[in-house]
Amino acid sequence: MSEYKLYMLLLGCKPEGRNTEQHDVLFGIAKELRDLIPQIKAFWPGPHKIHVDAWREVKNVNGKAVSVRLKNELLQQSSAYKLFFINLGGYRQNAFDEFHYKMLAVAKEKGDAITQAKMTAFYQHTGFAGAASHVDDKYGVDVDDLYEIQDILPQDIKAQYVIDIQPAEGSQEEDAIHLGYFKLDSL
To answer: Gene3D superfamilies of this UniProt entry (predicted)?
Structure first.
């Protein structure tokens, strides 16, 4: 079993010339959170004062155990499940903003992940006539972004590691979500 972990990070910074802070999500693989700093800098290059607004070590999603394996490790059985990242977008009456809900889903295919997204309270209760919750038109449904996480890992990381999803043994605690303003030198 690999000692490497899958992390999900919400990165933020205010690039020069922008009026508001910008955000993006990075998935990275490392032994420890601080080991992701080179991946963070490669993901969002520039002289910006980038920081982490939220992070999570991804271990359990939808009752399935998520782990990282070296590509050359022989897997006893390959899982039919994949790990998806979904960025839902939606609106609230009289609020000058588009709200987002970022979620992970374990599913066999994108359609199953979309079904899970549509069952969330965010999807069902954010939006109104003329401004519905959405997932993204390219999938024939309303979703802002939908990715298989293995596909969006940095190229060098993809070459070395694979995300392994197996049935969870016993009861699994939900992953802890860490929120705040984390400077890179404090990770």
So the answer is: 3.10.20.10
**What is the radius of gyration, based on Cα positions, of the chain?**
17
The contacts found for 107-112 with CB under 8 angstroms, 24 or more apart, are 107/62, 107/81, 107/82, 108/80, 108/81, 108/82, 109/82, 110/84, 110/139, 110/146, 110/148
Q: Are 101 and 25 in contact (CB under 8 A)?
A: no
Pairwise CA distance, residues 167 & 62, whole Å: 10
Q: How far is CA 105 from CA 60, 62, 69, 82, 152, in A?
A: 10, 7, 19, 8, 15
pTM: 0.88
Tokens (6 digits) for 174: 């939900």
Classified as helix, coil or strand, 39 is helix
Position 141 confidence tier, pLDDT thresholds 50, 70, 90: very low
The 10 Å Cβ neighbour count of residue 142 is 19
- Are 9 and 3 within 8 A, CB to CB? no
Average pLDDT over residues 72-93: 81
